[in-house]
Amino acid sequence: MSETHSQDHAAATRRFPPSEELAGQANVGPDVYERAAQDRLGFWEDAARRLTWEKDWDEVLDWSNPPFAKWFVGGKLNVAYNCLDRHVEAGHGDQVAYHWEGEPGDTRTITYAELTAEVCKAANALLELGVQAGDRVAIYMPMIPETIIAMLACARIGAVHMVVFGGFSADALASRITDAGAVLVITADGGYRRGAPSALKPAVDDALGRTDSVRNVVVVKRTEQDVAWTEGRDLWWDDVVGRQSDQHTAEAFDAEHPLYIMYTSGTTAKPKGILHTSGGYLTQVAYTHWATFDLKPDTDVYWTAADVGWVTGHSYIVYGPLANRATSVMYEGTPDTPHKGRWWEIVQRYGVTILYTAPTTIRTFMKWGEDVPAGFDLSSLRLLGSVGEPINPEAWLWYHEHIGGGRCPIVDTWWQTETGAHMITPLPGVTNLKPGSAQTPFPGISAKVVDDEGKELPDDTTGLLVLTEPWPSMLRTIWGDDERYKETYWTRFGDMYFAGDGAKKDEDGDIWLLGRVDDVMNVSGHRISTTEVESALVAHHAVAEAAVVGASDPTTGQGIVAFVILRGAAEDSGEELVKELRLHVRREIGPIASPRQIMVVQELPKTRSGKIMRRLLRDVAENRELGDVTTLTDSSVMELIKEKLPSST
Ligand code: WT7
User: Fold this and answer.
1) Peptide bond preceding 67: is omega within 30 degrees of 0, i.e. cis?
2) Which of 510, 561, 569, 637 could lock 439 by a disulfide, CB 3.0 to 4.6 Å apart?
3) 610 lies in the same domain as 487
4) Ligand 1 — pocket residues by CB below 6 A?
């Protein structure tokens, strides 16, 4: 992606072998690689046996109709039972499942027994509302325990949850509800962010004005702010869930029963509904959570500092940790509310031992300075994780030293919404860590770096990352669009999964991820499609044409830079219009998609076939010398664009 800085280079050459202590007691040792290499399917079967199945499977993998995989064929289990009841039945009901902390400082401690009871009540409420197995339920919530309770209640009755990140707009929510055909929305009046209540219900009301599949809206009271109410449709969570019995017997579903849909950005404007199913998904999230983080359920306090509204939250706040009977921390708000040491205060208060977060956050902490974490006792930490984008070696070292006290291994986990669980990552008791590299395919996972023709490349050559074998937690399809599923992931290289990431292997065979190779940006670890932002911009009456690129950004990884051509009538609008366009994108997609910069230009660089040359725009946005302009229809276009720049970069 970007040039490595010299400090980064020095950092990248350092090595961190596991301590003897960790290597000696780690959940998995070097032998797992061997085991998985010799008998890949047998290895995944062992992983599946860590779960409780009502009925054993007849076949581990059915790959007779690629790329449509079936794992643990014929097996039956209940995902919520595996996350809850079985731990209570085994005598761990009093163990804390979540130490929840609200942004204003209110806290809740929820044990496995309490969580089980709450989920049973919510499941009974869903049934009373006529939700059936296979129905889709939209969840649009802040980071509160009810979000997890709602997800597990769906899983318990076989309904398919579709969580929409609370930062998404009414438009984004509406299109997802329509695409999924959701029959119910679970939301809250609002949540706390940056020290103030932030409303959610108005977006739901707005979205439902444009959709027709939803029968009811269940509203959790969190902020007590005023909400508009549609009689007959809207119900308070406290009423409808509160009056239910806390007994509910979980029914087992097929291993391939759909568990959830999670929308993610692709290369077109329409987000893809990634479908995950039950048995294979839970197998791999539970096993990776246990192996990658060396999770010890009796002693660890585990914290994924991410939002439940993303796949990281699904797999490593909810399903993985609960399946492994972890004690987790869940925090509602932003890291600097009310002060920049909030996270470290939480680590100190709960004695967090394992922390998992994104490089963008680590770089923000770097900016705030090491004095902030130094003011807290972080000695409980024993392992750190990173996810969402490549972690630059400098940030890796900072994390290692100033958060991990020089003693905690860092696992840099590469995976995607589509993969469901970790795919390339070091193992803490095994791997000689290399800052900046995700290093090794997880046992039972096969990854390669290939050229455009799908031929495996020699070491130290940049190419494309592919996954050559199906894996248990892989997406099963794009909701309602099998063709798009095939075409997006499985057409370019035939029988191999195309991840969309550039990569190279070094001389040790370690994999370095180099960022997206498609028109997808990675902003603070969130995937945003350039096309999606472009179509939001051209939907504005003042905009004739738009081109969007991701420009490297010291904090967020990439920042969104938009080039727009205005319609004739709007030609002379300046600052005000730019502000208005930024707002417009926030409204259409959400604050995360709001461009860092919008440049009004007369023309866009295009090839003779009419394709916008984003590469050149990226050069401009990153203040670089222009690359090759010879394929442009009119090379003077770039001069015109550059003239516009001084004020904007
Ligand atoms: C894309 C997937 C995985 C959950 C969060 C993001 C990038 C993710 C890493 C990493 C380098 C990474 C890739 C990938 N990515 N983790 N450790 N090193 N790149 O999920 O929104 O589906 O995005 O995030 O580009 O394709 P997502």
Assistant:
1) yes
2) 510
3) no
4) 264, 311-312, 387-390, 412-417, 438, 499-501, 513, 516, 522, 525, 527
The residues, any chain, with a CB within 8 Å of residue 114's CB and separated by 6 or more, are 97
- Count CB atoms within 10 A of the CB of residue 304: 27
For the segment 323-332, the average pLDDT, to the nearest whole number, is: 98
- Residue-wise pLDDT for 91-131, tens only, equals 999 999 999 999 999 999 999 999 999 999 999 999 999 99
Residue 543 maps to which CATH number? 3.30.300.30
Residue with tokens 């008791």: 429
Q: Six-digit token pair at 96?
A: 């804390």
Total number of domains in the chain: 2
| Across 249-272, average pLDDT | 92
Name the one residue in this structure whose structure tokens are 């163990």.
95
Burial of 371 (0-12, 13-18, 19+ CB in 10 A): exposed
**What's the start-to-end Cα distance of the chain, in Å?**
20
Q: Which atom of ligand 1 is nearest to the CA of 500?
A: 26
Measured in residues, the chain has a length of 649
DSSP annotation of 568 reads G
Q: Examine the predicted complex and report whether its ipTM is higher than 0.95.
A: yes
Q: Kindly tell me if the per-residue pLDDT of 441 is higher than 70.
A: yes
**Do 408 and 528 belong together in one domain?**
no
- Note whether 123 and 248 are within 8 A (CB): yes
What's the predicted TM-score (pTM) here? 0.90
